[in-house]
Design a protein that fits this description.
Elements lengths: L8 H25 L1 H4 L2 E4 L4 E4 H16 L9 E3 L1 H4 L13 E8 L1 H5 L6 E7 L9 E7 L5 E5 L10 E3 L7 E2 L13 E4 L4 H8 L2 H14 L7 E3 L3 H9 L11 E8 L1 H13 L3 E4 L7 H9 L6 E6 L2 H10 L6
Parallel strand pairs: 3-4, 10-11, 10-12
Antiparallel strand pairs: 1-2, 4-5, 5-6, 6-7, 7-8, 8-9, 12-14, 13-14
Length: 326
Amino acid sequence: MERKSQIVVSDLVPAGIHVLQHVVRQVLKDARDDPESAFESVRIGKQKKLALRVDINAEDSFKRELRKYHKGKFKNVKVYGEESLRSKNLNLSRKKETMVLVDAIDGTDLLEQGISNWCSAAVFFDPRNQKGKRIMGAFVCLPTGDVYYATSESESEKAGAFVKRITEKASEPVCGRTKVKSIKRASICFYGQKADNFLSVVEHPFSKNLSRLNRQAKKAKKLDIRIFNMAGIPMMLRLIDHRVTHARGIDAVFDLKGQKPHDFVPGAFIAYRAGAVIRTLSGKKVSLEMMEDLLTHPASGLIKYVITSTESLATALFQMFKKGRV
């Protein structure tokens, strides 16, 4: 018996790049041409949840463009957007179809404020595939129009994740990760825009250990940590795409409060394919199978994680998470 949607991995790359670039262009146009309407709040769905018009328009734009792409080749792919992904009861484990989970605007508050650390993300997923192949591909488009992606066929660390830069005709492997091993020289990102998230770091042993480390190193002037309170998918991508060898890059991204699986997996999957070190807060390695399991219940629970450019930096960061340790 044939599957309802005969989609293979090789079909996804041009489709994912095209559709997400289309969405990002539309989002930027909406925000530029009619910001009053774009950022107007409206009630949607049976639960009458609040959303912004720009979010709804972006998701609708994704659906329309995907369905008409390549003469309707993807018209039977089930699209799960932000509204359906809010349901804690959503269970995709027994679905018999190829689907795509979409966050058309990840970081709407940043878009509103004119800050570029937002993105459009999509994950193609088929629970019928063998384990390790159920995530068929993940795609993330930044406001620049650059699209980062990886697929289930991306096996090599040297060519496991790719980027289609808006200025180039062809995709290329991401430039790779930094080689930073010491916490004293690291550029670290955490999500701290909301009070709960910010306090999860301020009240955590990490902050006390950082203060202690700072006092110890102050006289010697050997501490050169950079800390950013913006994290999420865009920073995961910057961690794996260190383009200027002698310049600083992003070395670590962590979240102590946790993200919904559908907000974590697109960036984590691409970073995984690029060879980044990904752990839960308990220190357990995040595997492809774990990410697949998370996606079967995309709005159930939170994933707390650490992503670093090197194993040594991961070890050093976990030491910072322990009480009374530096």
